[in-house]
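Extended Data, panel c. Modelled sequence:
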Amino acid sequence: MAIESSCDETSASICRDGNILSNITATQKVHEAYGGVVPELASRAHIQHIVPTVDQALMTAGCLLEELNAVGFTQAPGLIGSLLVGSQFAKSLSLSLEIPLIAVHHMQAHVLANLISPEKPAFPFLCLTVSGGHTQIVICHSPLKMELVGETLDDAAGEAFDKSAKLLGLPYPGGPLIDQYAQSGNPRRFPFPEPQIPGLDFSFSGLKTAILYFLQEQKANEPGFIEKNLPDICASIQFRIVSILLNKLKKAATQTGIRDICIAGGVSANSWLRKSLKELGEKLGWKTYIPKFEYCTDNAAMIAITAYFKYLEKDFATLNVSVSARTEWCIEKK
């Protein structure tokens, strides 16, 4: 069994021999009124959701609690209060059932979500991991050996989506709404700048500033500008964020010679990113892999598949293991 509770999703999953039998997630709606996740409310909601979520995961998988032979949980990074709920529940199961406890890093799990589906990338593969808090390019040499070759120097791609949505007056969570409005917009209507960052690293702070100044200027010159042009603005913002991501990914593939290319993380659910990756892959002869939508956002299935590989290596944690908001996982930096 695996438990994910890093932010505002309470999720439980059952994995048998590397196959996901269930993946149940309880979403918290309470944060919508505040324009973002409220940590205290998130941890309280996890307490309410975790028992019924675990019960449903067991029922869906046709598994009894006594049949479990290990329990994994998200150890880092995330909101401390939220992580504590999942970790303490997992520790209690480990202690009461006398089964191994497995600590999982959230970002490693996002990468390994690509190993859930029957069609899996071959090692080594490149993975672009994009979420609200992280933007990274990783070479995955094996399930437990990864090499970081590029990362954001400031803000993450998901944050750029959400902050842009807030500037447009869209409710939380804004990233999916930008994707929705962009469906009917012209992505080349407003040419936002692409940062010229050397190497394989990213930067999104300058783009966010450019979007802010653009909207301020246009609203001053034309009242109601955003409302009149919302689809085109959303499409243009989305186009630039995705182009930044894929241009770096293309550069990484060229430098490494790796042809199996994956994406992961919450932003990998973005329709333009998924479409653009497939088109770029067809053009350059890549084998591209994109997780199902349910495995892109925070979910316990990705924790379960990671815990499975750690179980095979007997990489177990003790009951003294602590959660952390920003702990780096064991990853080589090139």
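The chain has two domains: 2-110+295-333, 121-290. This feature is highlighted in the accompanying rendering.
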